[in-house]
Description:
The protein contains four helices and five strands; from the N terminus they run βαββαβαβα. The chain has a domain at 4-103: NAD(P)-binding Rossmann-like Domain (Rossmann fold, 3-Layer(aba) Sandwich). By secondary structure, it is an alpha/beta fold. Helix 1 (16-24) links the parallel strand 1 (4-9) and strand 2 (29-36). Helices cover 28% and strands 16% of the residues. A five-stranded parallel β-sheet has the order 3-2-1-4-5, sandwiched between helices. The protein has helices spanning 16-24, 57-63, 81-94, 120-133, and strands at 4-9, 29-36, 49-52, 69-72, 98-100.
Amino acid sequence: MDTINVALAGATGNLGPAILNALLADPRIKVTQLQRAGSKKGTDARAPTREVDFTSLDSLTSALQGEDVLVNTLGFGPAGLDVHLRLIDASLAAGVQRVIPSEFGVDTSHPRTGVLLIFKEKIDVQKHLRALCGAELYAFVQRAVPGLWTAGGVSA
């Protein structure tokens, strides 16, 4: 049984703990949490943590060395588009084989979604991935998570 090394960005956010729990439930997966350097939020003791500077391509590339997959659950508001694009660029530089962008809840590939400004940054991430990966791009379309918008977040 081969181990799959997964880096998780946003493990302490609204969605991250639920994703972390699901990943840790699979014994084939070794998860590493990427945490903003200097963050006071506690991380889950079941998985190692690497402190990173999300504004630094070098810091992210170094942290992603040896990872097979990056799962990004960072939000767009606080993190900003540049952080999401930098995570993709660092993944490519580090040799990460799969990137799962922060695309949870809405099918942003639908043409009518693309005209809504609220989804502009997510669509920009898709364009960036397509430019880098071409035919290797896989789309993950998630449906709304029950309670995410009404209960104040996802419980882990």
